[in-house]
Structures are given as structure tokens and as C-alpha cells.
Amino acid sequence: MATRDKDMADLSVVGQSVYRTDANPKVTGRALHVGNIEMPGMLHVAVLRSPYAHARIKRIDKAKAEALSGVAVVLTGAEIAKMPGVDAHFGPAFRDQPILAVEKVCYAGDPVVAVAAVDRRTAEDALQLVEVDYEQLPAVFDVLEAVKSDSPFVHEQHRPAKAFADLAHVKAGRQSNICYHFKLRTGDVDKAFAEADRVFEDTFSSPPAQHVPMEPHVTLVYLDEHARLNVWTSSQSPSYVRTELSATFGIPMNRIRVRVPYIGGGYGAKLYAKLEPLATVLALITRKPVRYALTREEEFLTITKHGVVTKIKTAVKNGAITARKCEVYWDTGAYAEIGPRIGHKSGYTSAGPYRIPNVWIDSYCVYTNRVPAGAFRGFGVPQVIWAYDSQTDLIARALGADPVEFRLKPALEEGEPFATGTLVHSFGIKEAIRQAAQAIDWTKPRAVQAGTKRRGKGIAAGVKAVLTPSISGAIVILNADGTANVLSSTVEMGQGSETTLGQIVAEELGLSVGQVHIVQPDTDVTPYDTITAGSRSTYHMGNAVRMAAAKVKAALCEVVAAKLEVAPDDLLARNGRVCVRGMEERGMTIGEIFLAKFGSLGTTLAAEAVCQPTAAHMDPETGQSEASRGGGMSTDRRPHGPGNRPVGKMHGVLVSFGHRRGSRGRYRNRARRSSATHQRRRHRHGDQSETL
Amino acid sequence: MKREITLNINDRDETLVVDDAETLLEVLRDRLKLWSVRESCGVGACGSCTVLLDGRPVSACLLLAVRSTGRDITTLEGLGDGQLLHPIQEAFVSERALQCAYCTPGFVLSVKALLDEIPNPSDDEIREYLSGNLCRCAGYADILRAVHLAREKISRAPVKPE
Ligand code: FES
Ligand code: FES
Description:
Chain A is an alpha+beta fold. Chain A contains 17 helices and 30 strands.
């Protein structure tokens, strides 16, 4: 991909503080959400969930429920398994998650029976009439128990999904709860431990937590007049949802249309497929529009962040860290979800952003009989930072070193190799540590405090990869009046992508942000995008829209260059015109260019581009990559976003940090998550740091 | 049991036949399609469904519709004149006090009630008053600034002749 060496000083739109282009619909409450869409004859779904963490389903009696007036269908997993051409299981890494439990349930909360009825109350009433007999099976709730050979197995076999390029290396397996193992070996760890002055050995655990997006998951599915499957869903990954539904139901991709309007927060909870497979099967059976919306309680039974246990052993010689050995156990719950990707991408950062000559990492993604775990703000990285940098503090204290200085010394410099061998670029970790220390007045003693709330100081350093290899496609359509439409599958979920992408296109085409409209994800028209997550959209989709806009600009320049008899390179796009650099009064408006090119003002000029940075020689076993372009460890420090600062998102990330300690989900009888979900205090005003 | 009730919603009388078990939230969303009123927790813990009942903020998910008979209800659709943004909304936009904005309607209405009750609130009073509204994108610091800006805008606004 071409890099752009334009100076910040040259930019007229990017880097400027602009109002969010989505501000008006959002602040008036008019923003479209899936929950506001209604269809005539729409049915509502309620789901009966397993009370047991691991049990065989012996008998389901649904006759009474089916007889209830207003009920359209009462469905079981066994019936789905018998539907011709339908795969009863789905999942992004392994096809291990049943649409409805078939034969056995794997966690307390696993969906067992679904009802679609004229309204939600009727559907819930019908569930009361369903009888299920279970035979309980031994269950495992602890990730360290689950890896033992005598543990009960959650799944008899592991079936890879092959949906994503970066997960192509996950392997089929059986007779184990470990579904994925990432290994990294650098240097000679054993020798370093033998020669160490001191060895530190600790175990850290980080509990699961729920994302609690204010808008719970909601999906609406219906068949249109061509019997094509139409899906409106609060998803962070519309392209994946289409792929998954196509694979699960054997429906050609062009007969599935997935649309995502504004979503009320996601934080990773709304990635991959969640409610869509069940809503689809109910719509296919009833031939009616089906809305499936989770209650807050069900949200907690659907997805959590990974609970993680990290065993970490560190060798110190002459005051420096010489070796680190990390064993990271990701509790991925009953279904792998995206656990393998997290075990990989976060696993390889588990020794920290430090110069450590000898590193040994084993990162295991492990099934247990708990709620499935997936992506959550930081994609697993916060859990490993919690472990390695808690230990860094313990070591600094034991050596009598200042924790900030102790981190600064080994912190990687620009161009140095990371533990994987990847050279880090645009890295800035030292600068970040220094600035953070300064922001919290690190060197000043803490003020004496009274009361129950006390404020401490601490520092931790983390590094997170932008998801690679991953792909973003975009189409830019320029209209003759100098406005543009941008087709992109990036989901606006609060992060400000509509504004950021608009700024980038406006910059490239010399328009104002208000002249650029970002079309919301619609798989009928917006090209493929891997996911909206992992801080990848500004980089990947930002480059895709920029490259597409550059192609459009090149077409404009060609016309102007011919007319004015100048070289295309001497032209620039500014204020709705293409003009000669240095002689900006010489130029043509976009309308004039269209007339010259097409002889008409009704036309459009469109171009597509795909951003696919690659880690050229990535060894899946070690994570070692030789030529990492654009991905890996690079961070773009140029501010694009609303308000010229990614501060809003940073506030959210700060709140997530509270999850190391604050919001441990309580498990009570039969390992079911406490249902009075809001007994647990969520973070409110006053619980959050206000310094950024 | 069903009964007929009349609610004054955004300055308009609405007469409806409702079930005794129906919440105000269900009536506002499912029947009247006032989509700014959002359901999130459904148990009175998050403030997403905040509406003003005779000017006071309440959780519509906890209130039975039948109990709201004869009361004045304001949703975000009823704030301002429907054309221009209300100063509180303007302040939320300028301070970027919204991200996904699912929580925003509830916050804006709570801020309206706050500034009606305490025209010049301190930071602590703002935090305390808004503690029933949750924002998971966590714009709390931005929201705090937005409240101060809204207060300034409102106090500068010309007083309308009665
Ligand atoms: S939905 Fe009413 S308070 Fe949360
Ligand atoms: S802006 Fe997303 S929950 Fe408040």
C-alpha cells in the first residue's frame, strides 16, 4: 500500500476538529436502531435456556406450548439438525455452537427451545409450557482444571470453521478442552533462568466480565418478495454475518442482505454471529418477519470477556529482565467463539513491550462449561497486561527500582524486534510511558487522603496489534454536484467512524466533511470488511476509502490535465475544484469536469479499493513474521477523528480497565451468572479517572 | 384487565386502551413509536428509558402506564421546538458528550430536570443527579462539561416574554 508522506501542515480536513456528522440524529434520539424497525406480521422470539452447565437433553415436550394461541412455532435443536442442507452449528473459529442445543447443553444459559409468537409476552408464556428432562453430566468451571487429562470434555471434537484467513491454521482436535495452542520460543529461556540472579514466579487471574452495551443485541430477519433473506442486526461484523448465514443455511451469498444501522455500543460483544442464525431459522420456518431481542439478563448469558489465568516466570540478571516464560490460559467457555484469535493475537504480547532476549510463551484457548467468551475492548490484551505488568511492579519493588524507570529501560525502541521477531514501527511506547507518568505527577508524593474513596497511582504499558491479516474494501462515488457517497461496511457504533471516514474522503477529494455521506453497512452494496473492532477501522477502512477516493481524483485530474494542458501531478483538489498547484485560480469545478467528461451532470464517478496489509511470512506456530506491512505493531499517531482526538474512546477504555478488579460476575448455584445483573455496580459518574 | 387512559405526552393528549401490566415504556415505544425512549436493563437500573413525568425524571420501564394517567410526560421528541436543538442538545454536540448515543436521550432529559431544579449545579451535584443514568461508552467527563456548557447557554438565553 502506498504510504503518504504529506505533512500534517498540508492537510485541510483530516486533523481538524469537526463535529460528528452523526451528532444530529443521535442527540435528537432519531437515530435508527434495529429495535425501531417493525414489519407487518412481525413475530417475537423468546428462548428457553438450560438451567444446567452440562447435561444431556433426554426429552422435550412442547405440545402444550404449540397449542397456545398466538404461537407460530416452537423449535428445538434436534429439529434444526434434521433440516436438509442446514448446519446446526456455527462459529467463527470452530463450528461448535449449536443454533439451539442438540443432544446436550454446555453451559447454564445455553439456548434449548425457541418460540416465535405474535408478541414477546405470548412467546414467554409459551416457554412456561415447555417441559425438558435433562441428565446432568460432570462439568468443569475452572480453566486450570479443564486442561487436565481427567477433566470432563466440553466437546467430543473440534471442527474448524475456515471463515477467516488469520484463523486458517486452527486445527481439528478431540479428547481435549484445549482448542488452540499458540507457542512462541525466542532465545534460550532455560539457560537464562539458570544464570539469573533472581527468579520471580507469579500467577495472575483476571475474571470474565460482560460488555453491557446499552443496546442489548437485537436482530430482525425477514424474506423479501424474492424470498431473499434480509437481516437487520446490531452487529459489528455485517460481512461475516452474511458469510456465516450462507455457510450455515446453504443460501447463496447474493440472496442474503445484511444491514446494520447505528448500534448502541458493542465493545466486542456484537462481533461475529450471535442472534442471526436462530432468527433466520425461525423466519425460514414461519415465512414471517422475526425479531429476536435479548433482555439484559440474556445478554449476560450470551457472551463475556475471557477470564484468564496467567502463570509468569521472569529471570533478572544485573537488574535487567533476561527471560520471561508465560503460560496463558484463556477460559473461552462452552463455545470457542473468537477465543483462538484472542489466544493468538494477545498471547504473543504476554511478555510485554520490552526488550527481553529470551521469551517462552504458551497461550491456550480452553473450553469450560461457562458462558462463551469473546472479544472485549482490547481483544484480550488488557488481561495479559494485568499479569505481566503487575509482575513488573513486583520485580521493581523487590529490586528497589522506580517502576517507571524500570519499564523505560527495556521498553522497545523504534525499529527493534518484538518477541515475535516483528520489527516495531511508529511505536512510541517510551514516550507513552513518560507522558503517562507526567500526567499523574508520578514523582510527586500522593496527597494524604481521607474517606472511603482513595486514589492511588500506578503505571502499566501495553501493546496491541491491529488485526492482520484483515481486509477492508470501499467504494467512493462522486456526484456531479461535488458531493460524494462512500460505501463501507464499517459499523458506526459510537467510535466516530462516519466522521473519520468522511474526513479522509473529504481531504482526498477536496470537499468539506458535510459533502461526504457514508452509507451504512448493507451487504447488497457495501464491500467486504473483516470486522469493526480491534482499532483497525481507521487504518484499514481509512486507507481503503482514501485509495478509492484517490482513484476518483486521478480520473478528475486526467480530464483537467488534458483541458488545461498541465501535468496531472501539478493538480490538487480543493474546495470542490481541481486546480493547478500554486495557481489555484486556474482549474475546473467538479461540475465542469463532469460536463467535459460525460457531457451530462447526472452521472457519477466511482472507484473501488481494497486495503489488505499482509504479514508476509507469518509462522502460525510462533507468530514470527518477516515482513509486516502496515499491520503488526504499527500505530498511526496522526489524529483523524472527531474532536481531533480519540479521547472519547479512551474514556471507555479506561472504564474497561476497572474490569481487572471491579466487575467480576458472581457465579452462584450451578455456575449460572447472577441474574440480577444490575446488582453489580456498573461504572457511573465519579467512578472514572478524568485525566487524559 | 384493560382500561382506557389518557396521557398528556409532549403537550398532546393521547387516549389509549392499555393492559394493567403494560409499562409506560411499552406504551411510548410499541404503541406511540416514540423511539427516543430506549430500553436497556428493563429493571430501573440504567436510565436509558428516562422520561419526564410532570418535569421529574422517571424510569419508564418501572412505571405502569395506568399509573401515569393525567400526568404530563415529556420524551426527547418533545424537547425544544422540533426544529432547532435545545441548548442542552447543542451542548452535548459541542462537548462530544455522545458516542453510540443510546444513552443520550435519557441523559439529556435528566440534565433538563437537573437544570430546572438546580440552575447552577456544582460538579458533585451533577454527578449525584446523573448517577441513575449509565453510559457504557463512558462519556462521563464529556457529559459533565456539557452540563456546564448547557447551563451557560440557558442562562445567556433571552427570557421569553410570557
Ligand atoms: S431500561 Fe429503564 S432504567 Fe434501564
Ligand atoms: S454514548 Fe454509548 S452508552 Fe453512552
